[in-house]
Amino acid sequence: MDFRITEDQEALRRGMRDLLTARFGPEDLREAAAPPGPQTPPHGLDRGLWRELGKAGLFALRLPEDEGGAGAGLPEAVLVFEEAGRALLPGPLVATHLAAGTVPDAADGSRVVTALDLPQEPGAGEGPPAAAGTAPGGLVEHLDGADDVLVLGPARVRVLPPAALDADPLSSVDPLTPLHRLRARPGTGLGEGGQWRPGARRLRREAALLTAALQLGSAGRTVELAVEHARSRRQFGRPIGSFQAVQHLCAGMLVRSETARSVVYAAAVSEDEAETAAAALRADEAAVRNARDCLQVFGGMGFTWEAEVHLHLKRAWLRAEQWMTAVTAEEELAHALQRDT
Amino acid sequence: MDFRITEDQEALRRGMRDLLTARFGPEDLREAAAPPGPQTPPHGLDRGLWRELGKAGLFALRLPEDEGGAGAGLPEAVLVFEEAGRALLPGPLVATHLAAGTVPDAADGSRVVTALDLPQEPGAGEGPPAAAGTAPGGLVEHLDGADDVLVLGPARVRVLPPAALDADPLSSVDPLTPLHRLRARPGTGLGEGGQWRPGARRLRREAALLTAALQLGSAGRTVELAVEHARSRRQFGRPIGSFQAVQHLCAGMLVRSETARSVVYAAAVSEDEAETAAAALRADEAAVRNARDCLQVFGGMGFTWEAEVHLHLKRAWLRAEQWMTAVTAEEELAHALQRDT
Amino acid sequence: MRLDRTPQQEEFRCTLRAWLTEALPTLPPKPAPSDWPARRAYDMHWQRMLYDAGYAGLHWPADAGGQGATPTQHLIFLEETERAGAPYVGAGFVGLLHAGPTIAAEGTPEQRRRWLPPILRGDEVWCQGFSEPDAGSDLASLRTRAVRDGDSYVVTGTKVWTSHAEVADWCELLVRTDPEAPRHAGLTWLALPMDAPGITVRPLRTLAGTAEFAEVFLDDVRVPVANRLGAENDGWRVTMVTLAYERGTAFAGEVVACRRVLHDLARAARRNGRWDDPVLRRRLGRLNGEFTALWRLVQWNVSHAEHAGRTGGSSVPGAGASVFKLAYSGARQELYDTAAEVLGPEGALDSCHEWTAARLSSLSYTIAAGTSQIQRNILAERVLGLPKGR
Amino acid sequence: MRLDRTPQQEEFRCTLRAWLTEALPTLPPKPAPSDWPARRAYDMHWQRMLYDAGYAGLHWPADAGGQGATPTQHLIFLEETERAGAPYVGAGFVGLLHAGPTIAAEGTPEQRRRWLPPILRGDEVWCQGFSEPDAGSDLASLRTRAVRDGDSYVVTGTKVWTSHAEVADWCELLVRTDPEAPRHAGLTWLALPMDAPGITVRPLRTLAGTAEFAEVFLDDVRVPVANRLGAENDGWRVTMVTLAYERGTAFAGEVVACRRVLHDLARAARRNGRWDDPVLRRRLGRLNGEFTALWRLVQWNVSHAEHAGRTGGSSVPGAGASVFKLAYSGARQELYDTAAEVLGPEGALDSCHEWTAARLSSLSYTIAAGTSQIQRNILAERVLGLPKGR
């Protein structure tokens, strides 16, 4: 057992951080998020950046070397996704990464792939997918900006063009993640043809884990933001970070991000179902609650649109609803208590 | 509207506080609780004190004046029960108070009445009461020390001698509140005869409210204890109460006790079902969580048997399981959201 | 302990309710949230209707042009207007609830004549210039300077978190007139006309995407000495006099509104089937208990404020106000987090849904008007008497 | 990032497991919790078995008589012994985990020869005399005085929260030798023989009703100067050297035990039907996620401690230890609160039920060995680099 980040992994992580610092730093994030408001349509994806991410291996990372990948594993993917989460990089990163072996040109960042999580796989000729309605699977991010949609049924998976989805845009709470809602209308064609392939279960688990890595990155970043602010902001003649009330908020944030980190990394190594559920649960909670506590530390200063903090909270809300939600994770973890001893 | 304690009510409350300070102050409480341990049988009730309580009107308070009572209402009862909770007075206070109009000599404290809360009223000749098993109603406090048992079915009520209950003692977590557990055995005779009378629903609501008043008193007392300790205990060269971490624990305790107070008093005036549920819920939470926070403020000093704090926590745990539990209260309050608008 | 209303209170409620039934349908349509001039016009129209009906300045003393109503009547007013769906005080907030009462308490007869009637009639809008970028929780550290020059003060500095600055006629301004004096001792209260040269207003977008606040930049702005309330360097006391004029009714209307939202949540949950999830249902029940308690706490605080008013005291005890604010701000956030559960992702992630917008704006409740951390300090030190933290 | 075991680690585990399978059935029956001499005898018997099998002082350096095992091996040891239901370290706690390593690090050859072997063999029991009634979180304010008199120190004062004092042979004692020096500078570490005249031990009942701790009154107790570890007035450093010798394995066995309790809770809930309540079931699921994370955090900390040990560092970073202790103490309390829900009132209110007893004792976890408040201070100031509070 040596549960530490190796030097190679650290180099990979640092490479991604350097790339993102140069190409999508806090200033870029703020600029991308402005102008705001429900009236303004959210920005499209930066295709140039997407290709750079592809070149840096964000999507191809786990492909075999003879397919242009790095032959890396989930732990490496988790580390680079953590960096993406830290920078609050927008886009269907998880879906494109998962599609890299399936969709031509996804691996190098030439194509953007989003995903649809279907709780029920429609049989050929059947009615609408059950996703439409109230299930989280009814939402698709970046549909307008994507070239393909990876559709995950409970067991099988297929790829569709975005136009095949009958969906309405909604005004996403996250200004950098446009959302579409599937319409409940028959004959959308999702179930037609024979292009369904197996492997959805593994992909869904990996999607949950990589989303947890994004959340972990955000949770760690909001600790940094809170600490920076608490060090520099002065009230009552001293830095607010010298007040125990603020110190203890920050300490609680650190506890959340560090416990989440241990289980997110471990799930990447173990690839265990229940451990992935634990990773999703802890990382979602760390991201959401850290962003809220960070807002509290910032006080009025964090309540403006220009501050980075609210973007973390909104993205954290959104990611928490993607793939494995808290209810599913808790039930899975309860179920696991009966299984093994 | 004048939602304040009147002068008469204040005088009543003060009378009860003075009586309890003289007859059951912190020293008496500590002495009553020692010696401890699961091996030692809990103390019996102090019959002399019980009669004094009767003389002071704790049980007869709401009886008409021509029946030896004070003709007072629930608000007055709530105030004196709050004092009893503050002193952590042991005994089946609620049951004896509720039985005062029914059981001869209960009103003046000559007889001690405990209660059994039956979720299902047994029909004559039927099997054992459903209380036995896992329901909270299966527990009876102070059975050995009581002269009578007030049995509450869902709608009807009757009085039985303690010997009629087939019950085993258990080692109560609260050293001052011995408990018996009903045995699930047929032929206990609880349903026999025709002595069932109506009125259980009102009694059960009043029991929940008076129990909430006891909890409120305890919650207020643990605020006092925590504040006293935080003022006098010094570490790092200053009172620990000057540390924000301790200050904010105490502030949170005050918020709990004061919000609980408003709804406990209001439920005494309105006699509303849902408001009583809110009172039970808030008061139980205030008592339990305040006792725990008080323990935290006391640190190691509160972890000894001699300290009063743990007795509040244990009593709060016990009272939280009596009459209206959190599940029932929450479901009742959810139900009320559909009812009125 | 009485929760029933006196005959006078009941009559007040009936008359008000009857008037609301007649008056509300005559209101023009609600303006767009981003159209500030239209919002001002709408809010002032409503204020004028209240004025004409005799409800303007309900809680103001009669000698200031108000109705001298008791806190209980004010509570009934807030309850009834909220239940009837009447407009909120909106752009009239600072004038009616803060600047006005301050002027009524501390102004000269001339100042009262000049400023109070237009507030009551809905003719003039006030905003508040207290907070600064570096003076938030620590208001007394504010640095906006005012230098006496003949009959004027020359004011330079930056104010922030100023609501309605774009459409205000006046700003109640707290400035530093003596930089040498101890923090609280060198401040002065001025009425700043918002059309004075040297004022720049920059709207601030909040995290909810709306422009609720503004920064106000003051560059050598001349304010007549006659616009000063109270003595020079006595501004802290002047301001606190009114902040202490709290009758327990702050947020009372909002609690009524939250309780209505809870019923709406239960209805929505039953419609979409989520009601059958005991985790969510019990969470709603728990919230119902919490808001029931908060509503009773409002009544408790108001009754005590009313009694204190009758007997010469002037304020609800600090305990009541801080306990309520702490509990309410947390409960409101929990309410809209629960709303997100009821809605499910499709609603919770839709920023156009009113509950999602409310969820975002609820985040300010543990920050604005004294953070929860400051409230806990107040409770610990001023109410519980714990030794002062260092 | 590797979670699998090396062949050597796997072999260590297999050998240990095989030994445990044979050894455990030979243990005598467990003594009654209140019979301290019997508990000492039982714990020392087990320690002697470990010694004979070559597992005593597993994590001690080889030159101190230990096995020089890596932190990972120590973790495997804790995991396996817990899984097999082996006894805890019990009365050997202070000797094996604190006093022993301190003596190994700071003692003279003679001191090491005198005190270390009896600890490893289970011949002598140590207790700890650090805390005092007025020196809890603020240990450096301790006031027990030691005055040099010839070849002895004469010690007077009161120690509290001393486990196993009734049955200990030695006490590692922290005393003040220079009352004039700054708080941390005047302290000295002494080995106190518990049979010295002038010692009175008074058992303390905890809120759980058991006598886990004692007060130790010292009245002119003579301790030979030869029993001093390190220099006079250097006791703070001597003590901290060992406290910093944390390899991330503290509470590791308990986490394994908690995870087993979680499975037991699920089983009990299925048996009594409460499993069908989604509120409770999801709470159990959430706890499973929390303890899964905690177990991985243990492995993370141990791996980093092991690496630090290999590369000349000596300690798991403070972040790891404080993060873990904060999260674990809260999770353990939540675990036994949930156990009360699973049991229902009849079990939760029965103090004889092991989960109810564990619920009571769990209350000390946010207090003992550094309160949660102190841990948060450490994280804020030492790990996050926030400015020191005042």
UniProtKB/TrEMBL annotation, chains A, B:
Domain Acyl-CoA dehydrogenase/oxidase C-terminal positions: 209-316
Occurrences of domain Acyl-CoA dehydrogenase/oxidase N-terminal (ranges): 6-100
Coiled coil regions, renumbered to chain: none
Cofactor(s) the protein requires to work: FAD
GO MF term list: acyl-CoA dehydrogenase activity; flavin adenine dinucleotide binding
Keywords: FAD, Flavoprotein, Oxidoreductase
Pfam families: Acyl-CoA_dh_1, Acyl-CoA_dh_N
Taxonomic superkingdom: Bacteria
Family from the record: Belongs to the acyl-CoA dehydrogenase family.
Record PANTHER family: ACYL-COA DEHYDROGENASE, ACYL-COA DEHYDROGENASE FADE28
Designated name of the protein: Acyl-CoA dehydrogenase
Lineage, uppermost ranks: Bacteria, Bacillati, Actinomycetota, Actinomycetes, Kitasatosporales
Automatic annotation (TrEMBL), chains C, D:
Cellular-component GO terms for this entry: plasma membrane
Cross-referenced InterPro entries: Acyl-CoA_Oxase/DH_mid-dom (IPR006091), Acyl-CoA_Oxase/DH_mid-dom_sf (IPR046373), AcylCo_DH-like_C (IPR036250), AcylCo_DH/oxidase_C (IPR009075), AcylCoA_DH/ox_N (IPR013786), AcylCoA_DH/ox_N_sf (IPR037069), AcylCoA_DH/oxidase_NM_dom_sf (IPR009100), Mycobact_Acyl-CoA_DH (IPR052161)
The keyword Flavoprotein is assigned to this record: yes
CDD domains per the UniProt record, alphabetical: ACAD_fadE6_17_26 (cd01152)
One Gene Ontology MF term: oxidoreductase activity, acting on the CH-CH group of donors
Swiss-Prot/TrEMBL keywords: FAD, Flavoprotein, Oxidoreductase
Keyword Phosphoprotein set for record: no
Residues in Acyl-CoA oxidase/dehydrogenase middle domain copies: 127-221
UniProt-recorded name of the protein: Acyl-CoA dehydrogenase
